[in-house]
Amino acid sequence: MKKILLLLPILYFFSGCAELQQVVSQYPQIGTAIGNPDIAAGLKEALDNGITKQVSKLTATDGFFKNEAVKILLPQELQKVDKTLRSLGMSSLADEGLKVLNRAAENAVKEATPIFVGAVKNMSFNDAKTILLGGDNSATLYLQNSTTSALYGKFSPVVQSSLSKVGADKVWTSIISKYNAIPLVNKVNPDLKDYVTQQALKGVFKMVAVEEKDIRRNLSARTSDLLRRVFALQD
C-alpha cells in the first residue's frame, strides 16, 4: 500500500509532463522552424515598413524642416554666414536659406524612395539571425553600412535636381554673393549638393530605425505573420 502511495506523485508528475509537452507541441518551434532565409525576409519586411510608414513622412512639406530628429541645420561653414546676415538685418534671407535646404531634402526623398525600396529588396544579409538578435536598429545599421555608398551615387543627382526645383540654388547664390561682398570676411563656397545629400540620407536611415524599433518592441507593430514569427525569436 505504501509503495502505491509513493508511486502516485511520480505518475502524476510524468502525466503533467506529458500534458505540458502536448501544450508545447502546439506552438511553432521558432528556433528550428525559422531559417536564415525567413529571418532575412522578415528583416527586409521591417525595413520596407520603415520606408512606407516613416520615410514617407519626410516627403511631406516640413517633413524635414519641422521634424527636429532629422531637420537639416546649417553646416559649420555657413553658420557664420547666417550669423553675419542676421547681424546686418537680413534675418528673413537667412531663414529662407535654411528652409530651402530642407525643402530640397523633402523633394529629393520623394523622388528617391524607389531607390531605397530597391536597395532593401536586393540586399543580402550575411547573418540574418545575428542582426535579428542585435540592437533595436541593427537591421537599419546593416542597410546603412551596406548601401550608403551606392545610394549616395544615385541620390546625389536627385538632390541636385531638387535644389534647383525648390529654388534653393538661387536663394543660396544670393546669400553667398551678399556674404562674400562684405569687406574683410573669408569668402565661402560650400558644396550644398554634397551636404544636403549626406543629411537627407541620415534622415532616411533615422526614420527607418524608428519603425524597426517599434516592430522589435511592440507586438501590435508586427502586422504580418512573417513579422510575428521572425521577431518572436528576439523577444
Main attributes?
elongated, 235 residues, 10 helices, mainly alpha, disordered N terminus
Assembly state of the chains shown: single chain
What Rg do the Cα atoms give?
A: 27 Å
- How much strand? under 5%
Per DSSP, the total helix count is 10
| Low-pLDDT runs | 1-32
Give the number of DSSP strands: 0
The major pleated sheet works out as:
none
Q: Helices and strands, in N-to-C order?
A: HHHHHHHHHH
First-residue to last-residue Cα separation: 49 Å
What is the approximate shape? elongated
Helix content percent band: over 70%
Secondary-structure-derived class? mainly alpha
Return the average pLDDT rounded to an integer: 87
Notes on the structure:
With about 240 residues, the chain is mainly α. The chain contains 10 helices and no strands. Helices cover about 75% and strands about 0% of the residues. Helix 3 packs across helix 9 (about 190-215) and helix 5 (about 90-120) crosses helix 7 (about 140-165). The chain is elongated. The two termini are about 50 Å apart.
Short description:
This protein is an all-alpha fold. It contains ten helices and no strands. α3 (36-58) packs across α9 (192-217), α4 (76-87) packs antiparallel against α5 and α7 packs antiparallel against α9.
